[in-house]
TrEMBL record:
Family note: Belongs to the cytochrome P450 family.
This protein's name: Putative cytochrome P450 27C1-like
Cofactors that this protein relies on: heme
InterPro entries in the record: CYP11_CYP27_families (IPR050479), Cyt_P450 (IPR001128), Cyt_P450_CS (IPR017972), Cyt_P450_E_grp-I (IPR002401), Cyt_P450_sf (IPR036396)
A single MF term (Gene Ontology): heme binding
A GO cellular component entry from the record: mitochondrial inner membrane
GO biological process: C21-steroid hormone biosynthetic process; cellular response to peptide hormone stimulus; cholesterol metabolic process; cortisol metabolic process; glucocorticoid biosynthetic process; vitamin D metabolic process
Pfam families per UniProt: p450 (PF00067)
Keyword entries, A-Z: Heme, Iron, Metal-binding, Monooxygenase, Oxidoreductase
Native organism: Scophthalmus maximus
PANTHER family per record: CYTOCHROME P450, CYTOCHROME P450 FAMILY 27 SUBFAMILY A MEMBER 1
Amino acid sequence: MNCAATAVRFLRLCAPCARTLPASCAAPELRRAGSRAAALIRRSSNVQTTMTGTTERGGLKTIDDLPGPRLSTTLYWMIFKQFGHKMHLFQGVQKGLYGPIWRSKFGPLDLVNVASPEFIAQVIQQEGRYPVRIELLHWKEYMDLRGQAYGLHVSKGPKWYEIRKVLNPKMLKLGEVSAFASTINQVVGDMLQRVELLRSRSQDQATVSDVAAELYKFGFEAVSVILFETRLGCLQEEIPRDTLRFIAAVNDMLTLSNTVIIFPRWSRGILPFWKRFVQAWDELCGIGQKLIDRRLAEIEAQVRSDQPAEGLYLTYLLSSDKLTRSEVYITVTELLLGGVDTTSNTLTWTLYHLARDERAQEELYREVNSVCPDRREPTTCDLSRMPYLKAVIKETLRLYPVVPGNGRFVTENEVIVGDYWFPKKTQFHLCHFAVCHDEAEFADAEQFIPERWLRPGMSGDASARPAPGLYRHQPYSFIPFGVGVRACVGKRVAEMEMYFALSRLMQHYKVQPEDDATTIQAKTRTLLIPEKPINLRFLARSELSSGSQ
Ligand code: HEM
């Protein structure tokens, strides 16, 4: 994929104000670090705003003083060194060459890359009240073409915040999200049945091929059941035709989005991409709208017959009366876009590592089994007693931050990072992957060590391997769900899906690699995905000797 497209896709997912960090979005240590960074900026800044609102930059350097590759150098790395699909690794290479802040140009983008937790914290501190990740002008153009309302990705300023204010309470509050638990657990049950079916069909009665593709179906079904309050049948043996069309439309729109953004507007009549992009959006919105309208008709019928209209997220949105119908359509669609392959790829990488790390897998199994003996289905309350489970997911997100780079297009403020001054409308690229893999931030950074997320003594296993210093890291060195008011709105839902799915998979199966010798690398297609299919063996614990059950 073109490097500009890849960069754009990074930034699409990734986008606002540490000063207004809500409790739901950031851990206390993150907020403390945020205030430290703000104090640092205030102290070190010698920028003064004059009466006319212009800024004297004092002794600070500007964007033109930043080191960074020429376009020809970038192209050389992309094409000849084959970093086009390894943008996550490219962050580290460039950091090694230019230090923790550098400039790079990709197609239409002029990026300031920051790759240290301190600098990331400084950008976030100055991002303003209504942060933006990147301007998606082609999405806006589509919405204008169809006269549609703007959703989370196109709305700006207070309008964006109004939408977030409606979405947040039912998505980010732990207590509220628990209402989704039993529904998610049903979907997990279907996923387990599908694993059984696939095993039974495999030659060795154990292997599931392309685990990421299977978990994608799980991710799609799990988030859709909350958003549309309808089962789509993604995990059935025969996936319904409309569901297949829906899945294809999501893929097409996201893929074409990356192509369309890099071509100038005048090429739209000549090249086929814009037309196909519009078709994909039409299909996606059409199916989404149909699902929402169908559910709305059911709710209206319930209300007419004096039955309580109980539902999950859609009922809440429709009944909140704070969003127009058109805003509900687009918002639900955007939640779906953010919520499928993020969760599924994280789960895939988790299983991949556990399959190769018997000790960690057994530690996890022991924990799940001690909290929920005899394969009892875990509840949200049980999850709170599974620190190792959470540590395993965190460690996976550190090694494979599924959104490896985030973005901030800072429009409200001039920004100071280190001893550089940047004008308003500077596009920052926050190199999260590079930071997560930096030895200076994480001891044994390339190793899968869930214990680093446990406080000393939290793991039940005396032979666990944490070493002194393993537990410490700077809070902004690990922000897989982003940070601030613009952070991921689906974080709680994603965690719940992953915790239930992983704990129940562990209750039933011991996971092994199909082939020990093959390691599978990550590649970037916006998200960090496996470069080739991951096949795993799922050995039924009920058939194993009692020691490893
Ligand atoms: C492992 C799972 C997930 C990861 C790692 C993840 C990560 C992220 C990141 C890094 C951002 C950008 C945040 C920022 O700019 O500070 C984001 C935004 C977003 N995520 Fe997630 N996400 C995940 C799951 C989900 C799920 C399940 C949903 C939907 C239910 C979702 C919906 C969204 C939406 C709508 C945005 C844009 C929010 C806005 O711009 O206001 N995500 N996510």
